[in-house]
Amino acid sequence: MNVRRRLIPAALASALGLGALTACSSDSAATGNTDKFDVVASFYPMAFLAEQIGGDHANVTSLTEPGQEPHDLEISTKQRAQLEEADAALFLKGLQPAVDEAVQQTGIKTKIDAATLTTLEDHGTGGHSHEGEEGHAEEGHAEESHSEEGHSEEEEHARDPHVWLDPVKYAEVAQGVGKAFEKADPDHAADYKKNTEALVKKLNSLNGEFENGLKNTKTKVFFTNHAAFGYLAERYGLTQEAISGLDPESEPSGARVRELQQEAKADGVTTVFYETLVSDKTAKTLARDANLKTDVLDPLEGITDKSRGDDYFQVMEANLKALQKALGAK
User: Fold this and answer.
1) pLDDT tens digits for the chain (330 residues)?
2) Beta strands in 50-191 (DSSP E)
3) Which of 27, 116, 154, 221 reaches 20 to 30 Å from 6, CA-CA?
């Protein structure tokens, strides 16, 4: 067990919802060294899992600071050293290339890639996510690609990494992380198992809320800034239409904007959703031109002062309410 200690800035701990960890308490901080299970997480959804599952036994830090767009992260020399000293790294391959590279280059013993703990699908860069055969066909293809070590990097990056926005897939990842923690730190395996079960139960309950809340709606189509909600759309029988693709910074073509304007009329779309961590300019321009409303649908890539909630569950509840309002839930 690595006993070297790195302090988490108070603002970061608060923003990541890590206040409950005893590793962040003033008593622990004063000691300088602890025997905590030291986890470096790539960004908020991974840090949240580590904190919930690790509980009192884990010291969790995040490579992505609050308010920082995770796709743009570059790893500093200090962060590379941080990874080398950790007991475990928890990341999601394909979302942050700089993290993927840094983790691969370190000698860290426990490397937990969340992308291997569930099935990644190809939702297409255009952001089309439809319920039914397409999703299932892709699922089978994704499973195939996991078994082929030689599949190309291009194929890998075509997979949609935003699995945490589907509570069912996030629960699958949580179960895998729990098992990895049990194996890496067997002294506290029973607690990790108990914490994982509690988290999965809450995620299953959240899934039920989304199922019931989005069952009867006037429209099934929603517009987003970038294609982060493919898994959520597929899970609840909705169709996501993204202004941009999987990259939140990419600019849509004029043809794409015209296509969305026409679709808004055809499908009864009322709202263009934008995000907290990227510019809302494109979304608001489309909304103005198509006479639509705007609202926030948070991809939960980080918690900031602008977030509608302090943690994953609160923000997902806010997302559900926003979708119900925009889709005309009955």
Assistant:
1) 443 333 334 343 333 343 333 333 323 232 223 589 999 999 999 999 999 999 999 999 999 998 898 988 999 999 999 999 999 999 999 999 999 999 999 999 999 999 999 999 987 644 443 333 333 333 333 333 333 333 444 444 468 999 999 999 999 999 999 999 999 999 999 999 999 999 999 999 999 999 999 999 999 999 998 889 999 999 999 999 988 765 656 677 778 888 888 999 999 999 999 988 888 888 888 888 889 999 999 999 999 999 999 999 999 999 999 999 999 998
2) 58-62, 88-91, 110-113
3) 116
Q: Is 131 exposed, middle or buried (0-12, 13-18, 19+ CB in 10 A)?
A: middle
Residue 306: exposure state from Cβ atoms within 10 A (0-12, 13-18, ≥19): exposed
Structure tokens at 35: 């025997």
